[in-house]
Amino acid sequence: NEEEDGLHFVLLPFMAQGHMIPMLDLAKLLSLRGASVSFITTPLNAARLRPSVDRAASVSPRPISLVELPFPSAAAGLPDACENVDELPSPDLGLPFIKSTKLLLGPSLHYLRHHHPPPSCVITDSFLPWAREIAREFGVPRLVFQGISCFSTLCIRNLREHGVLERAGSECERLVVPGIPHEVAIKKSQMPGTQFKDLRAEMREAEATADGVVVNSYEELEREYLNIFRATTGKKVWMVGPFSLANADEGDKIVRGKETSSEYQCMDWLERKEPKSVVYVSFGSIGRLSPPQTAELARALEGSGRDFIWVVKSWDGLPEEFKERPITERRMVIMGWAPQVAILSHRAVGGFVTHCGWNSTVEALCAGVPMVCWPLFAEQFFNERQVVDVLRVGVGVGVENPNGWAGEEAGELVKREAVEKALEEVMEGGAEGVGRRERARELGDMARMATEVGGSSFVNLTRLIDYVWKCESTKDVRES
Ligand code: UDP
């Protein structure tokens, strides 16, 4: 479509891996359709994303511009070169970090005023409410990038709007979500967003006044929740995911995210394994288990007798022999960062112990891999409910309280027996296990079909582009 050639999307991601990576995938999808994309970020993040952008350039009619704006860490009171949440020395710096992103507003405006073509649309992370100033200045639509599911968004929204949260007394009171088709309940302590109160209010205001929402999900996965979300918010919603499928071949999957020294080694290691025999264990880009919990999980993985790949952020709590020999025939311990999408997509992987971050969840679905759910914080307890009760492609290990990043102390340890039991159910599990794996495979097939030409997400992306194009033409009329 030649008409699309004129569009220029400005994407503003929040600087955390779980936000930047899917947004870059969205940028790839837009650029494949012939739009120009400016992806505004900082030098450290640009360096991490560059290999992925360079690979995409070879297949896209228009390369994505990575716009590098220096991030004034010092002015924000943050340590030097602290440009991504995963670099923060302490979770207590989370709020100052989020607030300090506002320092990028001036430089972003300056850049866009001096570059051609002018923006046609701004797509912004909900953590960056200040980005509405950019859309306002250029008189273009502003869309919110929603990196979590419709299901979780709706649960959080309904608990708040119906006053359920305020009425709840103790932290362990069970809150039943009103206004949705499945019975979903979580503990009050598992509800996200009790921190960062003033920021949340600003974010909600920016979301309420946005022109629409772009979601990393697909209609076949949660159509009924999408319908309720649309009906209750009156918002335009475009489900154009799973974004990770923008990475078609293994090389694209491997360079997605951040450099790792072990990437080819772990793919070779997987090559030697039987189909669906390996467990992949990861708690996302910032999740951490306490040292005692790490030790307990190590015992569970060893005790399960299964081969596993485990991505860790520190050696604390791990048995000495893991440190001395991170790679054996049975295990592969990866320190730091793993090529997750490539690993999950490998035929040898049969189960995923996950913190239920939404990206990880959707990536597992795309690969048809059932999950052992170990939520840590944020909306992950809702994602667990969606995976376990609604989609029925996972088993919970029984985490009670938030922990792992936001500074909360973990409650009771998840015991070795609970992990081994959940692993057994997911990897074997008799008839139920078969059903779970079958559903996971079907959801993966649906995800791929959704993103192929003519599929629901493909068509929704066309509609989004058409919408922006329409805004562009009415703007031209207004200006002439
Ligand atoms: N990821 C990865 N390698 C790692 C850890 C994470 O590639 O070692 C990617 C993962 O594939 C996903 C993102 O980082 O795309 C993490 O997002 P998610 O929403 O799952 O969790 P978060 O990190 O935001 O808690």
From TrEMBL:
What molecular functions are annotated in GO for this chain? Answer: UDP-glucosyltransferase activity
User: What enzyme class is recorded for this protein?
Assistant: transferase
Q: Which UniProt keywords apply?
A: Glycosyltransferase, Transferase
Record has Glycosyltransferase as a keyword:
yes
**Residue ranges of every copy of the Glycosyltransferase N-terminal domain listed in the record:** 9-243
Q: Which InterPro entries match?
A: Glyco_transf_N, UDP_glucos_trans, UDP_glycos_trans_CS
Pfam families the UniProt entry points to: Glyco_transf_N, UDPGT
Which EC number(s) are documented for this chain?
A: 2.4.1.-
Is the keyword Transferase assigned to this protein? yes
Q: Which family does it belong to?
A: Belongs to the UDP-glycosyltransferase family.
Provide the protein name.
Glycosyltransferase
